[in-house]
Amino acid sequence: MPAAVPLIAVVAAGAVSAAVGGGVIGAIVGAGAAIGVSLIGGAIFPQKRPRNSALGGGSGGSTAQEAQQRTQSFRQPITEHQIVLGRAKVSGPIVFLHSSTDDEGRADGFFHMIVVLAGHRVRAIGEVFLGDKSESDPAFAGLLRVDRHLGDPDQAANANLIAETGGKWTEHHRGRGRAHLALRLKLRPEAFPSGPPNVAAIVEGADTILDPRTGAVGWSDNPALCLAWYLTATFGWKASWEDIDLPSLIAAANICDEIVGRRDGTAERRYTVNGTLSLAEGKIEITRKIVAAMAGVLVVTGGRFFVHAGAPALPAATITSAELRGSVTVQGSRPRRDLFNGVRAVYVDPGKNWQPTDAPPLLAANYVAEDGGEQIYRDLDFPLTTSPSMVQRLMKVELERNRRQRAVTVQLNLSALRLRPWDGVMVALDRLTPFPARVVGWRLAPEGGIDLTLAEEDAAVWDWNPATDERATGDSPTVVLPLPGVIAAPASISVETPQTISFAALSIAWSAVGSAHLAGYEVEFRPLSVALWQGFAGGVSATSATIPAIEPTALRVRAQARSGAVSGWREVLVPLPPGGLTATGVAGGIQISGSVPGGTAFLQVFEADADDLAAAVKLPAEPTALPWTRTGLAAGQARWLWLRAVSPEGNVSALVGPVTATAL
After folding, report:
1. What is the DSSP string of 204-250?
2. Buried (b) or exposed (e) across 643-655, using 16+ Cβ within 10 A?
3. Which of 43, 96, 414, 524 lies deepest, with the highest CB count within 10 Å?
4. How far is Cα 353 from Cα 132, in angstroms, rounded to an integer?
5. Nearest CA among 519, 487, 520, 508 for reference residue 651
6. pLDDT confidence of 524, banded at 50, 70, 90?
């Protein structure tokens, strides 16, 4: 006998429902007593009550909170693992921290950490993000090492940590069955201005999912298959496969894999599931969220799980007056408080850094007219949905089902034992126009017989025409907030080019950094004969400085924030000098040949009547290429010449020469 095995208790009038429904069409189940809901009950997710749009307010906040938790690494004494389904950006608890001396001899220069991403094996760990930057960002070059562990049941401990943590991490710390990242950061203020950053990664989730259609085990984002995986998981319902009705599961998986068109001319599968679930949520909530992603229900009856994805119902039977044993109660419309004519929803958008995003709101003008012109919205969250077109289909289903308001409660004889919750039926009772319905309430009556609650069903609920039903997502408004831990480098730097052979200082100037958090600038220099940068000044408030220098010198400057963060360096290096110089006498002058280094703005030429650099003076001409001819000499005049390159920023190279020749 298909008696309902209830899962959740909710006190209400009517029969006991036996379906755990999705966020858009779900019913809440009774729990071993004659209590439950009479019609489609509360949504899978905590929902706001339908309300007048004039009162304001937006979509619910639970998806936003979950998305923030999903992408934030954290450290606390006790926490729960999480499940990753499909593809999602994921972070997790930090289970190990350690610092060690880096390769430059700096104490605590290396920072080691392990972030657990999932409490099970995953198919792949893709791109890793530190804060909002990818691991491939040039800012992390030479400063970051990432080791990925997929959570194999027999995986070995991280060899790098064993070697570098002085026995803190040993070969026994294997993290078996736990997908995790092992990172080593070389802490530099220009790359990590606020210290160790938040760590997250793009993860392709559970890959031990059985598809009974093929017998294959692997990765899947099919909600029906993911639900069956959770039902049988050791951290789930711990059911056996014999407890799951395979025909209904296969039918649900096929519905999820149906191809549906999108407005842009592409297509996607009808339902997918992509996101994370914390084991702290509990089995009921996790089950609800997976079911909601396919607009379906989970029915538990006769000791078995029946999985249903959202789709038109095929009538399993026709209910006639001949089966009645008692009264018939007809509800022609829902109470006003349960009606709505618009839907607003939040989903997770991979294109917006996997953050919660408002879907285009759905408002049906015909239903608004039916409600006397009052706009009434229902707000929904879809934390496991990442497609804007898919979330709009779920929104439409929610609205259309709500507007199918007719329901019938019937007292039938034992012939109704052939039906189970969520079956489709045709209601053909006397004095009622026949209409299709679903069984949303099922109860074995104490006096014998079956009490059913039947809700109106319409195949049009599931219709989808992307040309008219899908709305453009548009761009969400962006708010720019100050980031005191991040400051930009000066956009440009320049040097006042020396005009003489010798000099005692170099004047440098740089563009101002427009930041309310600017504390000043730090300036360093490196003479050509010195290998290391030397500090000149920190906390400089001006945008120029004069630095003692008697030889070609590289210069650099960076911004400092009041928080202690620093920008990257803006540098002006010593340019390479001209090469391969030769001098040849020509009529009325001397031609100088050689090579000019790439990136040279121009050359300076110094000339003397003898091989005496101290007596040389700069010629007015500043050639940009070689060969170049020194003109204006009389026949028989000899000259000695030295050259140096000038960079676009005005810095000078070392002098090369002399070369000498006699004018013809």
Report:
1. EEE--EEETTTTEEE----HHHHHHHHHHSTTTT---GGGB-HHHHH
2. bbbbbebbbbbeb
3. 43
4. 9
5. 508
6. very high
To the question of pTM greater than 0.85 for the whole model, the response is no
Quote the pLDDT of residue 638: 94
Cα gap 122→204, rounded to integer Å: 6
* Residue 102: C-alpha distances to residues 94, 107, 162 (Å): 21, 7, 16
CA distance 281 to 115: 20
User: Quick one: which of 449, 530, 521 has its CA closest to 489?
Assistant: 521
3 pLDDT above the threshold of 50: no
User: Given the DSSP bridges, would you call strands 638-646 and 656-662 parallel, antiparallel or unpaired?
Assistant: antiparallel
Q: How far is Cα 571 from Cα 557, in angstroms, rounded to an integer?
A: 7
Where residue 266 falls (left for φ over 0; alpha for ψ -120 to 50; beta otherwise) is beta
**How high is the pLDDT of residue 352?**
87
Point out which residues pair with 579 in neighbouring strands: 595
Predicted local distance difference test score (pLDDT) of residue 73: 66
Q: Count of H helices and E strands in the chain?
A: 8, 42
At residue 279, the 3 state secondary structure works out as helix
The DSSP symbol for 79 reads -
CB 22 within 8 A of CB 296: yes
